[in-house]
Structures are given as C-alpha cells and as structure tokens.
Amino acid sequence: MRTGPAHQAARSGGAGAAVTPFRPATPEECGDSARLLATLRGHIARLEQGHSQFERQKSRAAPWLTGLPELDRHLPAQGLRRAGLHDVSPRAYGDQPAAMGFALALALRRLNDMGERRPLLWCRLAAHEREHGRLYGHGLERLGLPRHRFVTITLRKPASLLWTMEEALKSGAVAAVLGDAEAAHADLTATRRLSLAAAAGKCAAILTFARPDCAATASHTRWTAAAVPSLSPAHDAGAPGAPCWSVELTRARGGRPGAWTLEWHHAQSRFSLVPGFSRRAIHPGTDQDGPEAARQEPALRAG
Would you say residue 161 lies in a domain? Predict the structure, then answer.
C-alpha cells in the first residue's frame, strides 16, 4: 500500500505531520444540516407518494378475492397475488377434476376484473386427458367461462407444458394460465421460474396437480380440493345443483390456513358456503332452516 508524505511523517514521529484535528460542528452548521436532511426527507416522501398514486392509477382493478368474506379473511391483505403463481392439489387420488374445477373458478374471478379483456390459456397433459377426460366446452360454459375467452393446448411432455406456460406468462397476452402439473417436474426451481414469469407478464398462473403427494413449490397460495355431493335446487329435488368442493387453504404468504365447503354460482361468478346436510350446519350460520333457526322463532302448531 502506498502512503503519502504526511502519513510517512506521522509514522516516523516527525513534527511536520499533517494531521487535521477534530473540530465539532458549530450550532449554525448543525442547523443547516438538519434543514438539509428535512428537505431531502420531504422530497423522498413526495416521490414515494407520487409513485404509489401512479401505481394505483395504473392498476385500477379491485383485489383478486373469492368474494366470500369467511374465506377472504384468511387471505393476505391484498388478496390473491394478481401476478403470481398458485396451485391446487387433489385431496385424494381421483379428485383432480374437482381441483381443476376449483382452479377454474378462481381464474374466473380473475377474468371478471373490470377492464380485463385478455383470454385464459389452459395447458393440458395428454396423460391427464387419457386418465380424467378432455375439457368439455358446454361444461366450461356452464361454469361461466365464455368460449371466446378460452384457449387450450395439449402437450405430451411435462417439460414442454411448463415451458409453454412460462412463455405465455412472460408475453402478457393472457389474463391467466392454467396448467396440469407433475410433482416430479414442477419442483421448486420450475415453479420459481413460473412465478417470475407471471410477475413479468402481469398475469396469474394456477397449477393443478394430479396427485396429492406434491413437493414444495414457489406458489403464493396452495390449496387442496375434493368433490362433495351438490344440493338439488329447491324447485326440483331431482335436479343437479351447483358445483361443490371441499376446499382447504394449506399455505398462504401473509395469510392463514383454513377449510371450507363451497359451492360455485356461475351466473354471479361467486362462491358461497354450502348449507348443512340433514339439517345440521357444516358452517355455523349458513343453515337458515336448521335447528338454530327453529330455536330463534317459536314454532306454530295447527289443530
């Protein structure tokens, strides 16, 4: 290390060492520094406030929520990550169609944002189609998905499917991408790439696994879903009711886990809690015809 003459003189103990003594700042200088710091802080605060207002104006859409207060209270403060990755796993083998239906319902909540005109891309694996069947257009319409906002593609290799999802997410041409997933291929590295691509393209991604034993992922929320019997409408006891799922939120960044039994109303694109079976409420307060309601109002007897 090279040293200057002043340092060499100081090390040798010479009298001509150029050492500047410490001088405390005067009150006038302290006041000038405090005013300068206050000015800088005010300028930074105005910049941050303007940036946040610009972000709010640029993203006028409402938070991505399920529309069910009992469930939304378990989500983070901003709701589901609008430009992020989420995944749904079946509760048991054979529940993948239920997981796909619930994932589609979440995506429909995203598609119904005001000002959102982009379509939905659904990437399927040929092996999953052979095992659980292909997508049925009329059934998707019954769930609330318009045909003109729906694009699907079938691939044979899981790696090709993940690559297709990543490229579609980065393009920003779609509002959401749904895709079949295999635990052996959708590992932490692959799902991290999908999460970054979703953030870059400002669109959502939802993976649906075929089996319940899925590995760790980089998803912001993780769900499990299982099929439950639907309730027949009041006007026709023999008719099928709305789609129903037993849903569990197992992981949410900034949220907390929970479990619900939900039914989907495609006309309003909303969830609701399923009333109790055999006059016993699964969710407290949802069975208006149950024994709780009977205790609140006196029963009338004729004769």
Answer: yes
CB-based contacts of 194: which residues, under 8 Å, 6+ apart?
85, 162, 165, 166, 169, 205, 207, 218
Asked if residue 96 lies in contact with residue 87, where contact means CB atoms within 8 angstroms, the answer is no
CA 37/CA 39 separation, integer angstroms = 5
* pLDDT tens digits, one per residue of 96-150: 999 999 999 999 999 988 888 999 999 999 999 999 889 988 889 888 998 899 9
Q: 292 in a domain, yes or no?
A: no
Q: Which of 59 and 66 is assigned the larger pLDDT?
A: 66
Domain enclosing residue 159, as ranges: 82-224
The CATH code of the domain that includes 201 is 3.40.50.300
Position 79 scores a pLDDT of 92
For 225, phi then psi, to 5°, come to -140, 145
pLDDT digits (tens, 9 = 90+) for 146-170: 889 999 999 999 999 999 999 999 9
- Does a structural domain hold residue 87? yes
Evaluate whether residue 301 is within a structural domain: no
Residues in CB range of 266: below 8 A, 6 or more apart: 142, 143, 144, 242
Q: Report strand pairing: 176-181 vs 270-273.
A: unpaired
CA distances from 172 to 111, 183, 201 (A): 14, 26, 4
| Helix-, strand-, coil-residue percentages of the chain, each rounded to 5 | 35, 20, 45
Q: Are 195 and 72 in contact (CB under 8 A)?
A: no
Question: What is the count of structural domains for the chain?
Answer: 1
